[in-house]
Amino acid sequence: MLIQYCYESINRSCEKNGWSNSIKIPMYIFMVGTILTTLAGNLAVIISIAHFKQLHTPTNYLILSMSMVDFMLGSLVMPYSMVRSVENCWYFGEIFCKIHTSTDIMLSTSSIFHLSFISVDKYYAVCDPLRYKSRINVYVILMMIFISWVVPAIFAFTMIFCELNIKGAESYFNQVSCFGGCVVFFSQTSGLVSSMLSFYIPGFVMLCIYGKIYVIARTQARSIAANHIHFQITIGTSQNIPRNRERKAAKTLGIIMGVFIICWSPFFFCTAIDGFLRYAIPRIVVDAFVWIGYLNSTFNPMVYAFFYMWFQRALKMILFGKVFQHDSSRTILYSE
């Protein structure tokens, strides 16, 4: 098969993927569908929280910020990653490659930081409800949002533009690099540090917090069940309410952690060990894991918003154009 290059007239040009259209077209369809779903879902959350005054709460500000991160990932990062993944070529210049890579790492890490802070918010809401409003106020939420944006931005842009990601592996990077490529490369140290900061530490925090929330929610459900024993004869369904709540809490927390771990663990596991394996993991595998990680931003609005009745009602109003009606922003979406 004839080898094609990204730039035929330039020496050391990267090779294009030799896939046929029967492979490329389904890949483009899948990736375009992922991008559009990511944009639509997160835009719906943004419009809902920004438009309806009842949703202007500290917790929802955190969800709004996360949706903005995921929307930017879908609009600013994923389209360029799509061309790179399918064609194995980068046509947008070396400087923009660094900007794209930095933005990719920043937004992906920022999205994970938001998930961790949302777990902290849920912890206080369930485990310390009496002091929740005093502990989790607007200023605390704004600090969480500030950290979720600024820390990943400083980390990502400093690492890429100062080339800290290739420090210690310069010789190997120079051997495998080619003109027209934009591969995210990590040395042993940078891969381990990046994985710890962006995934393992936030993931461990989430796992511990949600585990604690589940235990407390189960204890509260059993306590409510005990208090309702004497009503079982007169109210036959009351004994099922605590168990239903317990199952619903377990299901919700399981989906939250399951989606997060399934989407991001393959990529960050590879990132952490690839340097120690002398980069034996094929690039196509790593690239596939990148897109699986992107899916977390696609699923975030479904996991964190579609479970809420207020979002379902807000979405109906958006789809039917009722948000353009007078005083629609004052619509009561849920009872306090």
From TrEMBL:
Keywords: Cell membrane, Disulfide bond, Endoplasmic reticulum, G-protein coupled receptor, Glycoprotein, Membrane, Receptor, Transducer, Transmembrane, Transmembrane helix. It is found in: Cell membrane; Endoplasmic reticulum membrane. The chain crosses the membrane at residues 25-49, 61-82, 138-160, 199-217, 253-277, 289-311. GO terms for molecular function: trace-amine receptor activity. Gene3D superfamilies: Rhodopsin 7-helix transmembrane proteins. It is a multi-pass membrane protein. SUPFAM superfamilies: Family A G protein-coupled receptor-like (SSF81321). Its main location: membrane. InterPro entries: GPCR_Rhodpsn, GPCR_Rhodpsn_7TM, TAAR, TAAR1, TAAR_fam. Residues 41-304 form the G-protein coupled receptors family 1 profile domain. GO terms for cellular component: endoplasmic reticulum membrane; plasma membrane. This is Trace amine-associated receptor 1. The lineage of its organism: Eukaryota, Metazoa, Chordata, Craniata, Vertebrata.
